[in-house]
Amino acid sequence: MLSDSSARDRTVARARLKFLETAELPAAIVSEGIRNSWQRSKYLGIGTDEVVVPYQPDYDRESRLVRAATPVLDRLERALAGSDACVIVTDRKGWVRDRRVGEKRLSAHLDRVHLAPGFNYAEEFVGTNGIGVALEERRPNVVLGTEHFNERLQNVACAAAPIRNSVTGRLEGAMNLTCWNGPARPLMAALVQEAAGDIERVMYEFSSSHQRALLEAFQQVTHYGDRPVLCLGQDLVLANSAASARLTGDDHRLLHEAAAELGHAPRTRKQVQLPGGETVSMRCRQVDSSAGAAGYLLELAFEDQQPDRTSGGGTRPRTGLRSRDSQDAARPWPLPGLTGKDPVWNTVARTASRCARERTPLLLHGETGTGKSALARAAHALTGAASTPAVLDAGTGLPAALDAAPSGPGRTLILRNVDAVPPEEGPAVARALDAAAAQGTWIVGTLHRAPGVPDALRRCFTEAAAVPALRHRLADLPALVDCLLRRIGEGVECAPDVLPLLRRHDWPGNIRQLESALRQASAGRRTYRIELRDLPPSLHSAAGRPLSAWEASERDTLVQALLEADGNKLLAAQRLGISRTTIYRKMRAYGITLP
Fold first, then answer.
1. Residue 55's beta-bridge partner residues?
2. Which helix (H) or strand (E) element contains residue 279?
3. Cα–Cα distance between 361 and 368 in angstroms, integer?
4. pTM exceeds 0.85
5. Which backbone phi and psi does 178 adopt, to 5 degrees?
6. What is the mean pLDDT of the chain?
7. 96 with 116: CB under 8 angstroms?
8. Residue 138: CB atoms within 10 Å
9. 35 and 25 in contact (C-beta within 8 Å)?
10. CB 439 within 8 A of CB 408
11. CB 3.0 to 4.6 Å from 468: which of 3, 31, 344, 517, for a disulfide?
12. Under DSSP, is residue 176 helix (H, G, I), strand (E, B) or coil?
């Protein structure tokens, strides 16, 4: 759709149509950057008449990029009020994070083409557009009207510039200015580059504040003793000699992820297995600055070190071979009804078993479906107790339910979703838990993330342990599948090509999702074993975002057609009554992969 009748727009439109038909690139009519983007878009099979982009409604609205961009966007929003212009900020992957529009008609159009917060405007999804080209080529650019690959974008003009981290030089996102297409506006590129520079300066101020806070925390801890200390920020890594001699960049990334998940209950340490196979015990605290959370300070103890109480809290290496305790810790720790040999799972299983035996209140945190309650039940059973654990969910009326729950020696009380305890009931719940623990009841709390424990309940849990997500213990997948199939029924097994597909899935619902998928496949299998075609369609897709009911139905229909056509896209398209180009576009949008 052409909204500008200028000779240049008509010439570019004809050149684009000829390129789509013959792949012949115009030499001088459009810039080299636009020609290159057209080629990439056609190779990716981007649609020309429909905008199909991923949607991610849940994102960090307090990220450093968003906070740095907010004052710049506020200023531009005031300056552009009532004009036919819009300013947009995306992250480095093309996800739109903020948008300010000066005109309602333009806002409505941008909503129709999904150029709004939560949607992705990377070139791989939309084709040639200002944001996508700026991120792809790492330089400012202008895309006018008919230069857009998708026809639904051809009535606007866009100028975009990359946003870089002034300290590291890393690409952080893009600044975009969009307006109705019309006579070329020479100031568009200058305005958007100036705005990107302003955001970069604010981010630099944030970085400076964060770095000062991290350096101060690091110096305070390393002033005494020689234990390994690591300070991790987004753009800064500080390590003393005891840590730098033993850690690599991959170790830093893994420890940073572990620090973000670590609970803050008293005496809590987290066992982390490094990529090289070494195990380290980590104590963590968050470091804050005037600009917000700066990073994490980690105090480490490696497996071959032990506390040296004669040298101010430092460490001294153990002599000889690994201790018997270390060797035992590496062995699998069987629990009734559960399975797994992964070192991280092994550590949390041992911790739960010890706490059950010693009646130590324990907080288990991890993603939904990881088996936190099942782990507590298994550890309770391992003590030989004949009673069944009492399981309660946080909610209104919880203090009375806790008072009525069985308590005493040999009893276990599991309180799920501790973070959902209403603040006004926190003190009463804490008193009830303390009373049950005083009578010999083993108290276990579960929740998604340990930092979410209400302050009133934090002291009720002496230790904490993280239950790993299934995607972090895929080495246990074969044993888990066998264990779950035994629950489902005698004689059920998987075909050899099923397990590789299961390994490729990221399992956001963890073991609960795996069990549900196996039950569904088992119920619909056509032979004595589960085949690829029996698996739920969702396992053949990785959309990277939650799908609406309509999108999920469309994805399932597409996957089923592809499976029935043995992966033949043309045959599947004919049976569905759509084009093969649409098949490819939908497969890319939903992340569909078939063996």
1. 119
2. strand 279-289
3. 21
4. no
5. -120, 140
6. 83
7. yes
8. 11
9. yes
10. yes
11. 344
12. strand
